[in-house]
Amino acid sequence: MRSLLAIFLILFFSASAIAQLAFPIPRAVDVTGYFGEFRGTSRELSYSGHFHTGIDVSTGGRIGVELIAPEQGYISSIIINHPLYGVALVLALPDIENIITNEKGVKLLFAHLDSVGDFSTQTGRRVGDIYRSLLQAFPQEYVEAEFDPREFPVSRGDIIGRTGDTGDVPPHLHMEVRDMGSELYINPGYYFDLGNPESEVQILEIRAGGRAYRLDAGANPLIEVTEGTSLSVRTHVRLRHNVSPRRIDLFIGDLLVYQIDFSHFTEDERYMVDNVYVNSTETIYWFLLKTQNEDNIITVNRWDSVDLSEVQQARIVVRDHWGNSTERTFRILLQR
After folding, report:
1. pLDDT at residue number 140
2. What is the pLDDT, as a whole number, of residue 40?
3. How far apart are CA 122 and CA 162, in angstroms?
4. Interatomic CA distance for residues 313 and 31, integer angstroms
5. Is 270 helix (H, G, I), strand (E, B) or coil?
6. What is the largest CA-CA distance in the chain?
7. Residues lower than pLDDT 50 in the chain
8. Where are the alpha helices (DSSP H) in 203-320?
9. For residue 102, with 0-12 CB atoms within 10 Å meaning exposed, 13-18 middle and 19 or more buried, which class applies?
10. Are 54 and 176 spatial neighbours (Cβ–Cβ below 8 Å)?
């Protein structure tokens, strides 16, 4: 059932009609960080390794770009002095369908803002006054102020803030889509049109145990494994910056044995990066292809159905958000 759901979501995700929301800043889309990417441990910020919970887009190095409400809703909360997000705003959209649960309502979080509110609307003026009062009262403390749904209504196209570099990052906009309870992180690409950039999916090498094998086009190396041998692949999507793929499929013969799918994950799964990544950084991604896990990211795991007593042909297919894919092959054999 999980596999059928994953296939349905991928097909649905690929349709151009999915994007429902206006893009939140008035400039061309330039994705600099993708959903589910590896984010390492920060002892300074007391944060352990985790999946990237949203998508980052460039503001052209500028601070103060207008942040625009993508749809009618209300301001649910504002956040100041968060160790990762800096200044953030949470916008609730009660009429937008949650693509994962089919329930009504999602929340959007916009982070690293320079300011919240705007003088162009009554809501913008009032929430801006509260934001400035919070900064004055709590110049360094982390505070999240939550509001009644009737307090700060917004219309599609309203200016609700300005982008910035708070949270000690270069200027950009981080945007998330969550369920109304903020327990589920959903790939924002379901809701926002992320453009059609020139992207290239690169599969660089595969590692079995302590040995690495190049996966150049046309190569078909023989990889010998034992029952306990780890298997991982180094891959990324090349834009102006390396970003992580949308999906990774491992086939042995004709059988889909393993699948990593960055569609959604829960708050509990947010920190389970070691189930998916190994020896990774925020620009170099090694994905595990052989584990005991199956969850909302590892959507297929059929290693117990594989017979490697004889050499088997295998292939890895990696896809990006924009419909591009690359495939590489290798042979695999159980070493006795």
Report:
1. 95
2. 86
3. 16
4. 35
5. helix
6. 73
7. 1, 3-17
8. none
9. exposed
10. yes
pTM of the predicted protein model: 0.92
3 state SS of 17: helix
Give the number of other Cβ atoms within 10 Å of residue 140's Cβ. Answer: 7
Q: Which two tokens stand for residue 142?
A: 């982390």
- The structural domains of the chain, ordered by start, are 31-190 (2.70.70.10), 200-334 (2.60.40)
The pLDDT of residue 236: 98
Is the sign of the CA dihedral 278, 281, 287, 292 positive or negative?
positive
How crowded is residue 217: how many other Cβ atoms within 10 Å of its Cβ? 9
Rounded to an integer, what distance in angstroms lies between the CA atom of residue 334 and that of residue 65?
Answer: 56
**Residue 180, strand partner residues:** none
Counts of helices then strands in the chain (DSSP H, E): 2, 26
240 conformational bin, left if phi > 0, alpha if psi -120 to 50, beta if neither = alpha
Question: What's residue 7's pLDDT?
Answer: 44
The one-letter code for the residue type at 168 is: D
The pLDDT value given to residue 279: 93
Strand 255-261 to 247-252 pairing: antiparallel
Q: Whole-angstrom Cα distance, residue 311 to residue 9?
A: 33
Q: Are 303 and 258 in contact (CB under 8 A)?
A: yes
Query: Which residues are CB-contacts of 268 (< 8 A; sequence separation ≥ 6)?
Result: none
Separation in Å, CA 192 to CA 21, 49, 71, 176: 6, 26, 11, 11
